[in-house]
Write a structure and sequence with these properties.
Among the domains are: about 100 residues; about 60 residues, no CATH class; about 45 residues. The chain is mainly α and about 350 residues long. Helices cover about 70% and strands about 0% of the residues. It contains 9 helices and no strands.
């Protein structure tokens, strides 16, 4: 930053003029310049600190947004994993258990058949009585408890929610007509919902593609479609619009009587103004058929001429007639203003 002497020299003073200045004035100028320099440095530091804090806040916001995005991705991945596990159990493990139960029932029936044949053969003497028989073994899991015999229906499938059964074991509906009906129901639901919530627009994606995406996301078809096209937000917007229209209708119905009265009053006021304008137009207009009749003033004019109060109209020139006419108009206007 330049000194006081340099600033004075830049302003046009010579060295002699600067040297002739009072030392106290130079000191005061130096103090002011030093204070200004300090304030400028403090302002610059404050600006730099503000920029730094803004950068820190922006970075913190970016980190927060990134953390929120990562949390959302992790939550979505966890939900997908959970849905994948549920679907794997429902479509793989549970059918395998059902098949295993059916095979076990068949093997038990087959063993009973051979056991009956063996006993019949022993009774007939075809098989020696001292021949060893089959002794069944009981499976013991590692926890030392015997295997539970879970309830099954007449087709050998596990019964959902039965005491002693695997919690959550489902009952499968594999009939082709029910699957076809569910698919048609999903198709009609998706098209109707999208058209209703989008103002009559068609579904932008094919239904088979949506079904595949829903299967990949391990979500029911309707839940996935509702989430993809944000049906909840569209439904809320429609409800809000309907509420606004209802409120506007209520306000219009409430204000209708007052607006009718105001319109009636305005019409009456307008009619009164038109009647008043018509009356004054007829009273002061130039049409002799509708203008209000006035008494003749000839005798008054003749008296004024005889008394030398006004000039004789018959002896006036053009300039005097114009002046007299103007004076008469002004007098008539002055007489009508108090009446108005």
């Amino acid at each position: 930053m330049p000194t006081v002497q340099e600033m004075l020299k830049q302003s046009g003073l010579s060295d002699e003029q600067i040297a002739a200045l009072d030392a106290k004035a130079i000191g005061a100028f130096s103090g002011v310049l030093t204070t200004a320099e300090q304030k400028e440095q403090a302002g610059q530091k404050a600006q730099e600190e503000a920029v730094r804090l803004a950068q820190v806040a922006e970075q913190a916001k970016k980190d927060s947004d990134q953390a929120a995005q990562q949390a959302a991705q992790a939550r979505e991945a966890a939900e997908l994993a959970q849905r994948s596990n549920s679907k794997f159990y429902e479509e793989t493990i549970a059918p395998a258990l059902n098949n295993w139960g059916t095979e076990k029932a068949n093997l038990e029936a087959q063993a009973a058949f051979y056991r009956a044949q063996n006993e019949s053969a022993r009774a007939a003497g075809f098989v020696p009585a001292e021949a060893p028989g089959f002794t069944p073994q009981t499976f013991q899991p590692t926890n030392g408890q015997p295997q539970n015999n879970q309830p099954r229906d007449g087709q050998g499938r596990y019964v959902a929610g039965a005491p002693g059964s695997t919690p959550g074991s489902p009952t499968f509906m594999e009939e082709i007509d029910q699957r076809l009906g569910a698919g048609l129901s999903n198709l009609a639901w998706a098209m109707q919902q999208y058209q209703r919530l989008s103002g009559g627009q068609y579904l932008p994606d094919p239904v088979d593609q949506l079904a595949k995406e829903a299967d990949n996301a391990r979500l029911p078809f309707k839940d996935y479609v509702a989430r993809k096209y944000d049906f909840a937000a569209k439904e809320a917007a429609i409800r809000q619009k309907a509420q606004e229209e209802h409120d506007a209708k209520v306000r219009a119905e409430a204000a209708a009587p007052y607006e009718a009265k105001m319109a009636e009053a305005t019409a009456l006021h307008k009619k009164a103004l038109e009647e008043n304008d018509r009356k004054w137009a007829e009273r002061t207009g130039s049409n002799p058929d509708i203008r209000r009749g006035e008494p003749s003033r000839f005798a008054e004019v003749a008296r004024a001429v005889k008394a030398n109060e006004r000039p004789d109209p018959l002896n006036l020139n053009a300039q005097q007639r114009r002046q007299a006419t103007a004076q008469a108009i002004r007098s008539e206007i002055a007489e009508q203003e108090p009446a108005a």
